[in-house]
């Protein structure tokens, strides 16, 4: 049974996306052959064939962090580390800001000058009812978000999109201002490379929602905690008088029923005299404009404070604390469910596990300099130089070793019968298996018109219970015209909404070499065109020569 062996964090996913973008960005001078060789060496250093794709990718991130630190030194930091630091400070900042604001508002609201009692009607409305409604709304949003994440129908909320845009703008502005300060290069490099993930992207909004949710809940928790502490402090050091007045409610019995209903959550653990004011105390604290407070008993005027404090504690502090805990757990569940079988991640795992031809010199009696890793490797796996040299010697004896942990995924293949006849398909199947770890489960001959292909493809989609990728075979020299790109979009949205689309580019079948070079201009055109679809589950892959 395969294992993962590591726990996913948001920092890991941010760094993974950033490091993959570096490998795919031609502007950074990334060489595909060097990248494949490096990833293969990382796989050998990990030396754990029982890892599943998720565990393998997380180990890859750990190794790449070491390589990045070795190459960049202290000049640059990975965006995951910067995000984690910013989030920690943001959490502390919003909690402290909410706490100070809560103390200030409660302290100001409870100002009593001896002539006019504190109006508990307004106090209950703002500090208890309003906070309780906000907590209930946040709870509903959380449940809705958990449901949509589970069903795959999630979209970034408008609030999240708005806050994300503000965050990016502030980060870029901070990067510009801090460019000449110590450590400013870290932020500047992130601003130039766009290192933080696009939080509006449907690929990541399911996990980026929860940090925003937790931050807003922390602010509300700080506010309610500040209001609670401010109220207790006012009650402890000041002689306060509480009263109520209302034009709509003229009966003390109505207020008593309403207050008793609000006090239900704590009435079973507190004495009745403290859980809520009695009917006599409520009627005795009613303020009449014509009569003032001269005739009201002091015991009735001070009877409200336990109820007010408990209301803030239950409907504000405890409710928000529960939402913070639930939000953190929901974030962990969302990270645990994050799909590492998406095309670009699966391509990385396939690149690591796919064998590569290694040429080494035979021992002729001279000295041999064994290759050594320039970096310390993570604690989960090390390989000595002797072991690596022995592996190289074995690879020279066997050019095409078996793929380690060969967990090929069944895929539905779409191809033109005219371009890809049956006689030319066996080498394609072999390449898909060795390069991408994909095994064709069925092939459908299409004409690349959704009106003609749609019914047959929907039937195939319904008959196959597997949810592996859909591979579309294409000749690299054929330009990705608008109609073809529209076909891919409709294929994804109308026929296979829950399966990734791989566009596999080859040379013309029947030629001696069907591989496509990384610097092939036609391949670059395809990558640019498909990227404009802005769908992370539609990806271009080439037949590696």
Lay out the secondary structure:
Blueprint: H1 10-24, H2 32-46, H3 53-72, H4 79-109, E1 118-119, H5 120-151, H6 158-177, H7 184-193, H8 205-237, E2 242-243, H9 252-262, H10 264-267, H11 272-275, H12 279-284, H13 298-301, H14 305-336, H15 343-353, H16 385-397, E3 409-415, H17 426-436, E4 438-445, H18 450-463, E5 470-475, H19 482-495, E6 501-506, H20 521-531, E7 538-542
Helix pairs in contact: 1-3, 1-4, 2-3, 2-15, 4-8, 5-8, 5-14, 6-7, 8-14, 18-19
How would you characterize this protein structure?
This protein has 545 residues and is α/β, with parallel strands linked by helices. It folds into four domains: 1-76 and 355-364 and 372-407, no CATH class; 81-154 and 209-336, no CATH class; 160-194; 409-542, Rossmann fold, CATH 3.40.50. The chain is 57% helix and 7% strand. It is built from 20 helices and seven strands. It has a five-stranded parallel β-sheet, with helices on both faces. Helix 1 packs across helix 3 (53-72), helix 2 packs across helix 15 and helix 6 crosses helix 7. The longest helix has 33 residues, at 205-237. The chain is elongated and about 100 Å long. It starts with 9 loop residues before the first helix and ends with a strand.
